[in-house]
Every structure is written in structure tokens, then in C-alpha cells.
């Protein structure tokens, strides 16, 4: 009758099962610690730096709306945080032809190089490509009864403008960007 457990064997079995359960719990909490470490690693973003001519890891920017309001002008806040659009032909950087890099007004992330700026006639600064695909995020925008592709900064998720497919070669893209979403840094 070896398959029938004695009371002692039952207790031993129960203890070992509790042990397994305890180890599983430990493993779970270790997994959670690992998850937390991964979450903190995910709070950095890999972007291209024009000045360094290399990809760099920068801290992802996450601010409360109150912090954004303190940091930005009312116009910048409206464009960057409320997906607003400045009036055509009013932006300070529309006619800028200096050599340099256009950075995000919300966080300083490099967005566009003067080499890729062109006159689209639209009334907003226009570029046929970003400094790197990693520096921007695209998102479908279905407001105003149209489907457009919205452009956001990959570091701080601020709204920049929209991208259209009527741009010049080599990309055929027109990145239509609000001047107030940009800060110009001469090179
Ligand atoms: Zn930004």
C-alpha cells in the first residue's frame, strides 16, 4: 500500500508545496523588480543629435499640464499641448534661411535640419524629412472631418504639425510644422 500517504508524509508533502509556493512568490516579486527596472529603462528615448552626429539616449519628458503652462507661452501651449495651429504666414521661422537645427520648443529635441527645409508656399515652415525617424512620432488625426497624419516630438509628445505626401524628392513628404513649436539653433 505504498501509494497511501502516512500523516507524516502528507505533512512533508504539504510543507514542500508551501515551499514551492513561497519560491514562486519570491520569483514573482523578483520579476516585478525586473519589470520596474525595464519601465525605468523605457523612460529614456533614443534620438539623433545633429551636433554629436550620433544617436543618444535622452530622458523621456513627462510633465503635468500645469508645468507645461508655466514653461510655455500661451501660443506655444496651445500648439504643443492642445494640438493648435498658428495662422499661415505668421510664424517667425517661416522665412529663416540660416544654417542650423530646428529643435522642439517643448524639450530641445533636434527635429529638423536647415538642409531639408524648403519653401512649400503653404505658409508654415516645411521640411521634406526629420533629422531622424526616431526623433518624431506620427499619429492618425481624424479631427476636422479629414484623416491627416499628425507629427509629435518623440521625447516630449508635443504636437508639432502634420505630414503630407505632396513634398519634393527624395522623400515626397511635406512636414508642415508650426513655427512656434520650434526653436532655431544655428550651426
Ligand atoms: Zn519635444
Question: Would you kindly provide a brief summary of this structure?
Answer:
This protein is α+β, with helices and mostly antiparallel strands. It has helices at 7-41, 65-71, 74-82; strands at 44-49, 54-59, 100-104, 110-113, 117-118, 126-127, 136-141, 148-153, 159-164, 174-177, 182-186. The strands form 3 sheets. Strands 5-6-10-9-8-7 form a 6-stranded antiparallel sheet. A 3-stranded antiparallel sheet has the order 4-3-11, with no helix packed on it. Strands 1-2 form a two-stranded antiparallel sheet.
What is the level 1 CATH name of the domain at 63-186?
Mainly Beta
From the coordinates shown, what is the CATH architecture of the domain at 63-186? Beta Complex
Question: What's the mean pLDDT score?
Answer: 87
How much helicity do the residues have?
A: 25-40%
Number of strands: 11
CATH superfamily of the domain at 63-186: Peptide methionine sulfoxide reductase
Distance between the termini: 88 Å
Specify the number of helices. 3
Amino acid at each position: 500500500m505504498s501509494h497511501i500517504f502516512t500523516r507524516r508524509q502528507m505533512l512533508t508533502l504539504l510543507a514542500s508545496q508551501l515551499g514551492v509556493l513561497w519560491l514562486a512568490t519570491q520569483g514573482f516579486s523578483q520579476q516585478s523588480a525586473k519589470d520596474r527596472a525595464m519601465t525605468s529603462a523605457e523612460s529614456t528615448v533614443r534620438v539623433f543629435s545633429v551636433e554629436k552626429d550620433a544617436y543618444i539616449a535622452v530622458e523621456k519628458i513627462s510633465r503635468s499640464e500645469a508645468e507645461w503652462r508655466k514653461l510655455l507661452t500661451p501660443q506655444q501651449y496651445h500648439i504643443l499641448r492642445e494640438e493648435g495651429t498658428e495662422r499661415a504666414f505668421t510664424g517667425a521661422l517661416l522665412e529663416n534661411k540660416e544654417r542650423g537645427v530646428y529643435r522642439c520648443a517643448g524639450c530641445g529635441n533636434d527635429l529638423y535640419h536647415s538642409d531639408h527645409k524648403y519653401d512649400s508656399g503653404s505658409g508654415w515652415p516645411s521640411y521634406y524629412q526629420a533629422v531622424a525617424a526616431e526623433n518624431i512620432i506620427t499619429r492618425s488625426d481624424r479631427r476636422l472631418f479629414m484623416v491627416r497624419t499628425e507629427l509629435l516630438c518623440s521625447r516630449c509628445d508635443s504636437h508639432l504639425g502634420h505630414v503630407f505626401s505632396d513634398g519634393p524628392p527624395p522623400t515626397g513628404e511635406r512636414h508642415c510644422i508650426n513655427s512656434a513649436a520650434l526653436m532655431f539653433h544655428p550651426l
